Amino acid sequence: MIRYYNEEDRKDVLNIFNQSQHSPMSLERFRTLDQEAQRSDYWKRLVLEVENSIVAYANLIKRPGLRNGYLFATIQVDVNHRRKGYGTALWHRLWKIIQDQKPKGLETVILDTDIASKKWAESKGFRLRFHQFDSILDLTNHCPRFQLSEVPITCHGVKYVSLSNESHKDQWNRLYHLFLQLCKDTPDFYGVEELNIDFAKHFLSSSGIRADGIWIAKDADKWIGMTVLRDISKKEMWNAFTGVCSDYRGRGIASILKSIAADYAYSQNVNILRTFNLSVNKGILKINQRMGYIPQPGRWIMERSFIVP
User: Fold this and answer.
1) What is the mean pLDDT of residues 52-59?
2) Which of 114, 214, 280, 304 could form a disulfide bond with 125, CB atoms 3.0-4.6 angstroms apart?
3) What does the mean pLDDT of the chain come to?
4) Which residue ranges does the record assign to the N-acetyltransferase domain (predicted)?
5) Could you give the number of structural domains in the chain?
């Protein structure tokens, strides 16, 4: 039986969801994601039950950061119940909803270790758009590069401060505009037309992001770069974003911001710092390598376009 999801299904869906994650997500964190999804412009989740047990689910959501007119689609079947037609059954049901919504295209994400799921998605018309790499930095024996208590940190004329050190009334508004400016030059957002303040607010107000975990690079009073850290658990953080204005690239600013991010995570007694980057983002990948990040299995970002060339 295929039906719409309700809150009582959350734990069962999470168990299936975690089969596609390199690091298991907590029930509390998954609940927060559900709450964020409910505030999105469009969200539907279906579950498939067999003998009163949920064995698969499907999502369709319009989330911030997608290209204009695109929806994000997910279908996942419990590994113990695959090759029984459940994924195809969900796809047919989801396809009816997709036809009603008339999007310009769909996007989905698949672990790059799950070749069978990639082939299945390709059979439904999806094609590879990007390859995203995950990396982890072990901070157990980390030697801090900077003294974070002595702000501003100054290197080669550029100052580095956390957002919590800034006292401007419009500091968050300045941050949103800087973030949007940097996103436009980031491969992750190529082709995304609707990068607006609401998207910046959504990203930077996500649970686990705090003002003291956002660091700004400044040329005098001009904000020219930033790095953002986000709590994952008590012992893990995610370096969720790092960017530098195009006019200031090639001066080592991104490298310093990434080092500050590692030092900050270490100061919070974090053991593991995670990050992910697209394969086309060669500059950041080189910085990660120099810092000692260890590559992990990544994700294929796939798309199906409904736009006729």
Assistant:
1) 97
2) 304
3) 91
4) 1-144, 161-307
5) 2
Residues 77 and 172 in one domain: no
Domain that holds residue 188: 136-297
| Interval 68-102: pLDDT, tens | 889 999 999 999 999 999 999 999 999 999 999 99
**Are residue 167 and residue 280 in the same domain, yes or no?**
yes
* Residue 228's pLDDT band (cuts 50, 70, 90): very high
99 and 144: one domain?
no
* pLDDT score at 309: 58
Output the pLDDT for position 169: 75
Q: How many CB atoms lie within 10 A of CB 145?
A: 15
Work out the number of other CB atoms within 10 angstroms of the CB of residue 241: 22
- Same domain for 93 and 140: no
pLDDT at position 192, please? Answer: 64
Whether residue 140 is found in the same domain as residue 84 = no
Residue 259 included in any domain: yes
CATH classification at residue 73: 3.40.630.30
DSSP string over the chain = -EEE--GGGHHHHHHHHGGG-SSPPPHHHHHHHHHHHHTSSEEEEEEEEETTEEEEEEEEEE-TTSPTTEEEEEEEE-GGG-SSSHHHHHHHHHHHHHHHH--SEEEEEEETT-HHHHHHHHHTT-EEEEEEEEEEEE-TT---SS-TTSPSEEETTEEEEEGGG---TTHHHHHHHHHHHHHTTSGGGTT-----HHHHHHHHTSTT--GGGEEEEEETTEEEEEEEEEEEETTEEEEEEEEE-GGGTTSSHHHHHHHHHHHHHHHTT-SEEEEEEETT-HHHHHHHHHHTPEEEEEEEEEEEE----
